[in-house]
Amino acid sequence: MQYERQNPAFYALLAALIFMSVGPILLMFVNSFKLDVDIIGGRTGLLFLPTIRNYETALCDVLWYEPDHLDFCSLKFGGAFINSLIIALASTVITLVIGCMAAYALVRFRFMGRDTISLSTLMVRMVPPAVLLVPVFGLWNNEFCIDKATMVGGWIRDTFGGRGDVCLAGTHSGIILVYVAMNLPFVIWILQSFIVQVPRSLEEAARVDGAGPFQVFFKIVLPLIKPGLAAAAIFTFRIAWNEYLLASALSDRNTKTVPILIVNNMSEFNVEWGVIMATGMLLAIPPIIFTLFASRQIITGMTAGAVKG
Amino acid sequence: MRAQTLNRATPYMFMAPAAIIMAIALLYPLGYMIYGSFRDWNPSQSIGESEFVGLKNYITLFFDPAFRESLSVTLTFAFAVVVAEMVIGVGLALLLDRNIRGMSVLRTLFILPMMIAPVVVGLMWRYMYHPTVGTFNTTLKSWGFDGIDWLGQNALLSVIIADVWQWTPFIFILALAALQSLPRSALEAARIDGATAWQQIIHIKLPLMMPVLIVTGLLRLIDAFKVLEVILVMTEGGPGLSTEIVALRISRTATEFRELGVAAAMSNYLLMLLLLLTVAMFAITRLQEARAQRAARQIQED
């Protein structure tokens, strides 16, 4: 492949663009290693003594030693991080498995109600989380509850934690359920466009050889749509990892996720910039890693999701 | 015989988990919300105990200046953001559609902003906009200008800038993908006929990209109505109501004012607006497909 030579102005423009898009992230990264005195002192330069004190403050509840500068560990970041991880991973896996099967059914089989389902899947893609806030809050607190008297209720309370009578609100599974439902339409949509490309003759050959529908699906179709699965996984994870509003309505003290923690600390009168930036950086790291390693899949997913939308 | 029943049941078995979850956690809540929007309902009662008030919530909202204000803020925000992002994103795509080394690295760096949590984006920009210690004002002052009251007087503009920063790459990447899938023959023909670069863009590239661009713009518009966290973290809707978008108002009505019925009615207004946009998007896509088919048939007949 031959690369064209461009004039210097073009490269200057490129550099400016890169600076603009990455600059704020780098700024946050650098500031998270500064003491508050240095941040507020306004010396924007790179000349400062880097310190991991902010990260120590943020992660104080999971550190194996006690940082010298802290008397009391007020910020329970570690716990929130683990909550976020559980919720994001679980909802990603569940969404993918379920979404994949649904997408396959929609593409490969003609059955009653297929068009209705396909259309309504598309329509619910536009529902914003804010619209779900009121009903989900009401339902998860009042209707989707299991009385503590029953066996199942006691078991769920012991396993997942929660209040006396077990409601979905305040549990990991409550938040996971909303995220799965919210992400399913998008995942089904994106996977459909990948499954369509799997040659039908391949499946028929497998069926002739005596494979059942589930075998065909798991052994033939799934391996062929791996790129689509990767893209869908990243998008689902991103939403579940980053979401704030519904999580804040549904979580209690023990199931707080990282975004809630950050927002709560931001609304305090005296913002401790250093610590906040450290928590922000920790929240941003997993998506950044995904982006650096799987940008190709992300871009494929974006184009597939939009162009055919 | 058994195998045949199994075969007939297969699609339903594949569909069932998704259908059940979406029914429980998406459709049922939406129905619940519509039901609740006709009631005078506060968080301490269950919905059965609340009183039926008919269309009262909707009518109150319709004449509520604060809600109208936040509706107009939302519309201003959404359209300003989409127009700015479309212009910048498509412009950059046209400019950067060249065969250069390291294009994939460039794209990776560009999509970073939109993968990061909105909460974190809000946090970064709130720091940069900070009146005394923020990056923008310290830079301006070191150049001898006055600082700008970013999140005060110019709050809406500041919020729009932050969103443009985060989402322009989305438009850019889709526009670039559209550009690179254009038929080479058309561009070649234009070049041979002596069309300038500018003429090529106006008469060939843009019209051919238009279908993708329209869909992209509409998708972005729908998403712009979902923005919440960035604004929440940056301004909390203030100062006054200047950046209080509807999504934020819903959450405040529900949690601070404790009027779930009104919040539900508000959600319904927002939902109807988005429904309208989605239907428009479908209609446009269908129309384009039909037109493309007709064009293809004509070519075959000729």
> Taking all residues together, what is the mean pLDDT of chain A?
79
CATH architecture of the largest domain in chain A: Orthogonal Bundle
- Are there runs of chain B of 5+ residues with pLDDT below 50, and where? none
Task: Give me the count of strands of chain A.
Answer: 2
Report the sheet with the most strands of chain A, covering strand number, pairing sense and barrel closure. 2 strands, antiparallel
Q: Percent range for helical residues of chain B?
A: over 70%
Q: Ends of chain A: how far apart?
A: 32 Å
Q: Output the number of helix runs of chain A.
A: 14
What structural class results from the helix and strand content of chain B?
mainly alpha
The CATH architecture designation of the domain at 65-258 in chain B is: Orthogonal Bundle
* N-C termini distance of chain B: 52 Å
User: In what range is the share of β-strand residues of chain B?
Assistant: under 5%
* Oligomer status: heterodimer
Summarize the biggest pleated sheet of chain B.
Answer: 2 strands, antiparallel
- Overall domain count of chain A: 2
Counted by DSSP, the helix tally of chain B is: 12
Q: Order of strands in the sheet with the most strands of chain A? A: 1-2
Structural class of chain A, by secondary structure, is mainly alpha
Keywords (chain A): Cell membrane, Membrane, Transmembrane, Transmembrane helix, Transport
InterPro entries (chain A): BP-dep_ABC_trans_perm, MetI-like, MetI-like_sf
Family (chain A): Belongs to the binding-protein-dependent transport system permease family.
Pfam families (chain A): BPD_transp_1
